[in-house]
Q: What sequence folds into this?
């Protein structure tokens, strides 16, 4: 089994900063992409930022220049540093890890694992 757990959400004033963390644990052979998504009330879940195992990053246009994604492969952890936060960044933030599970025979088929979500609220 694989677990993905986020932490670091909270309430912050506009212009402030928060750092989200997401750790994957369990029967892991390797992790491909890791990413952060968010969902505001009434909206669809959207990609915020993603990073490959080779540290290639991708950002939504709305967060470029303000958010930075990074990962620590040794810890199976991905981070999202959020600066210059705006009220429109308010949402539940979810972590996704594309995990290759460890099996008795070696490596299994990659699949997506999601965290439970962490609330980020930015007040104006």
A:
């Amino acid at each position: 089994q694989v677990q993905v757990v986020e932490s670091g959400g909270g309430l912050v004033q506009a212009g402030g900063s928060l750092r989200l963390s997401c750790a994957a644990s369990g029967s892991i052979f390797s992790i491909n992409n890791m990413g952060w998504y968010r969902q505001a009330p009434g909206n669809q879940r959207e990609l915020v930022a993603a990073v490959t195992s080779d540290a290639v990053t991708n950002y939504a246009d709305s967060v470029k220049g303000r958010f930075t994604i990074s990962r620590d492969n040794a810890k199976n952890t991905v981070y999202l540093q959020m600066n210059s936060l705006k009220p429109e960044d308010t949402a539940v933030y979810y972590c996704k890890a594309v995990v290759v599970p460890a099996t008795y025979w070696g490596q299994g088929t990659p699949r997506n694992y999601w965290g439970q979500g962490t609330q980020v609220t930015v007040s104006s």
Remarks:
- The CA atoms of residues 8 and 20 lie 5 Å apart.
- The first strand starts at residue 2 and ends at 7.
- The two ends are 41 Å apart (CA to CA).
